[in-house]
Write a structure and sequence with these properties.
By secondary structure, the protein is α/β, with parallel strands linked by helices. It is built from 16 helices and 11 strands. Helices cover 43% and strands 17% of the residues. α6 links the parallel β6 and β7. The N terminus is likely disordered.
């Protein structure tokens, strides 16, 4: 589900000292306590794979309200069930920019983020020591530009208007790509404002914006009172695909290979449900986490492509080059200071657990 990005990662020490390997947590923030309480309300299912009793300690898992396998895993409490000796804390993030901040401050170990914030994290000046450990999805029509006025038929019709988008997100990247293709300049031809999805809805209802590029469930709500004029499927066809990814700090990955193997196997199993005959059941789990309905979720799932582990091997082979190409584009927009060497983006991929699951 992800760029100036106006939010900068603060690398200052947090109040609670954080141990990156799986070790017993020394303290709990109010946000983490709330997340743990929310996770406790999820439904429980038996572990669908072999239980791992080897991994011990604690892990802080970030999530976003993006329909996909991670929400199935969270709702069914598979991490807690399949890794009984691991204490799990779930932390909700509103955007990939917040996740990058979490990596930089050491407050989260593994989390969902889009390909654009992942690219920014791996590029200067942030140079966050993180790795992509799973591809949640390839984004298509699930992220789109919705306009309010019926007279707006194409992007250029928004010249002089205001578009809301979460900065540092895949939607932001796709919007910038679309503007470039349309010969439009942000700040000159159109005003972009940085709003989280929930705030986009409020701004839309308050007639503060003319359009918004965002994802579900907000996308569907806006479309009820507007219309889609373009989306990430079109920018992907122009050679700039975007992805929702799972990233983790390198220190965490290096210290916890057994946990990573089990976590990856659970993600792959959840994808098999989302894309197979049990899709209705999986949609129910996603709906619980989104506060939506299975019918709405089934519609949302059509806007994404969810690859199994075996298919991800081909995607991972070309992902470093795509991240570098993304960084090169962002650099032309003044949204990263410099493009890292391809070796940095290659080192930003952790394929080991995916390779094991794919066998």
């Amino acid at each position: 589900m992800s760029n100036p990005f106006t939010t900068r990662v603060r690398l200052a020490a947090v109040a609670c000292a954080v141990a990156l390997p799986l070790a017993l947590a020394g303290c709990t923030t109010a946000r983490e306590a709330e997340a743990r309480a929310n996770a406790a309300s999820g439904s429980t299912a038996q572990c669908p794979i072999e239980v791992n009793t080897t991994a011990t300690g604690s892990v802080r898992l970030g999530w976003q309200a993006i329909p996909g396998a991670n929400l199935v895993v969270r709702d069914r409490r598979w991490i807690e069930t399949c890794l009984p000796n691991v204490t799990v804390t779930w932390i909700k993030f509103d955007s990939g920019a917040d996740v990058v901040q979490g990596f930089g401050s050491g407050s989260v170990d593994l989390s969902t983020l889009g390909s654009s914030p992942a690219t920014k994290a791996l590029s200067a000046p942030l140079n966050v020591d993180m790795q992509v450990v799973w591809i949640d999805d390839v984004i298509g029509a699930a992220e789109s530009l919705v306009a309010k006025k019926p007279s707006v038929k194409k992007l250029t019709d928004l010249r002089g208007g205001t578009i809301a988008v979460p900065f540092s997100s895949t939607s932001h990247f796709s919007l910038l790509m679309a503007l470039q293709a349309a010969g439009m300049t942000p700040g000159t031809d159109v005003k972009l404002i940085n709003l989280s999805p929930d705030k986009i809805l409020a701004a839309w209802n308050g007639n503060e914006v003319d359009a918004a590029w965002v994802w579900d469930p907000v996308l569907s709500e806006l479309a009820e009172h507007g219309h889609v004029i373009t989306g990430s499927q079109e920018t992907a066809e122009q050679g700039k695909p975007t992805f929702d990814l799972e990233g983790a700090t390198r220190a965490f990955v290096d210290a916890n290979p057994s946990f990573m193997d089990t976590w990856t196997a659970l993600q792959d199993h959840a994808v098999s449900l989302l894309t197979g005959t049990d899709q209705q059941s999986a949609a129910q789990s996603v709906a619980v986490q989104l506060g939506s309905t299975p019918e709405a979720v089934l519609t949302q799932l059509k806007g994404y492509t969810y690859p199994r582990a075996a298919a991800q091997l081909d995607l991972l082979a070309v992902l470093p080059g795509q991240l570098k190409a993304t960084a090169e584009f962002l650099a032309t927009q003044g949204e990263v200071d410099a493009v890292s060497d391809l070796s940095i983006y290659r080192a930003g991929i952790y394929p080991t657990s995916i390779e094991k699951v794919a066998k």
